[in-house]
Write a structure and sequence with these properties.
Length: about 220
C-alpha cells in the first residue's frame, strides 16, 4: 500500500495517492538479461536510442498496462527524477515496505564503526542476494486495498558482523561486486551480463552489437 511507503518518509518523498492505493514494486532477476533484454534488442535494434535496459523495462511494463484496459495504471521508473533532481520514488524503501527485499542501512548496525563517513544502504534479496535490480513501480490509483496485510521482508543478513561486512563492501568496494554474495544465492548474473553492467554506459551499445547509427 502507498501508505506503508509514505509513513516512513519525509513529505517531500511522498507519493501523491491515498494511503490504501495498491502498488507493485517491479524487480528484475538475473535471467532478465537472457529472457528479456537480448530478445528485445534483437527485435527492436533500430529503435534503441537510449539505455537498452531502460527501454526494455519500459516496453515490458507498457505491455503489463495493456493487460488492464479497464484500469488506470501509473508507472514510475527507477531512473525518473523530479525537477528538483530528487528521484520520483525511493526504490529501496519501496522494495523493503513491499516485503520484496530487505533494505540494510546504517541504523541496522548497533556498534557503528564508520564515524563521520557517509554510509549508503543496500537491498538484499533472500534468493538473489545483490544480483537483482529494482526497476519500477506500478500504481493502481482506482484500486483501494484497506485490508491488505503487510509482509515484512526476509532479514537474510541477520548477524551484526555480516551487516557491517555488507555495508563495508557496498560502500567502499562495490566495483568487485562481493557485496552481492553476502548470502548464499540461488542465481547470479552470467559472465556476459556482468561484463555488460561493468562496461561504461556509452560503450554498451557496441557490446550488444548495436550500430553507431542506432546509438
Amino acid at each position: 500500500k502507498v501508505g506503508w511507503y509514505n509513513a516512513i518518509l519525509q513529505p517531500t518523498f511522498h507519493l501523491p495517492y491515498p494511503d490504501d492505493t495498491l502498488a507493485f514494486v517491479v524487480l528484475s532477476t538475473p535471467s532478465m538479461f537472457d529472457k528479456a533484454l537480448k530478445p528485445f534488442v534483437k527485435k527492436e535494434r533500430l529503435k534503441i536510442i537510449r539505455d537498452p535496459v531502460d527501454q526494455c523495462v519500459s516496453h515490458h511494463l507498457s505491455r503489463v498496462k495493456e493487460k488492464f484496459p479497464d484500469q488506470k495504471v501509473d508507472v514510475i521508473f527507477d531512473y525518473e527524477i523530479l525537477p528538483s533532481r530528487k528521484p520520483k520514488f525511493l526504490a529501496q524503501t519501496a522494495a523493503h515496505v513491499a516485503g520484496a527485499a530487505y533494505y540494510y542501512q546504517r541504523k541496522d548496525v548497533k556498534l557503528d564503526p564508520w564515524g563521520k563517513k557517509k554510509i549508503y544502504g543496500v537491498c538484499i534479496h533472500p534468493k538473489y542476494g545483490g544480483w537483482f535490480a529494482i526497476r519500477g513501480l506500478l500504481l493502481f490509483p482506482d484500486i483501494q486495498v484497506p485490508f491488505l496485510e503487510q509482509s515484512a521482508p526476509v532479514d537474510c543478513v541477520s548477524t551484526e558482523e555480516k551487516r557491517i561486512e555488507l555495508l563495508e563492501q557496498f560502500n567502499f568496494h562495490w566495483q568487485n561486486g562481493r557485496y552481492r554474495d553476502i548470502i548464499e544465492v540461488k542465481e547470479r548474473y552470467s559472465e556476459e551480463q556482468k561484463a555488460y553492467f561493468a562496461t561504461p554506459p556509452a560503450e554498451r551499445f557496441r557490446l550488444l552489437g548495436l550500430t553507431q547509427e542506432a546509438q
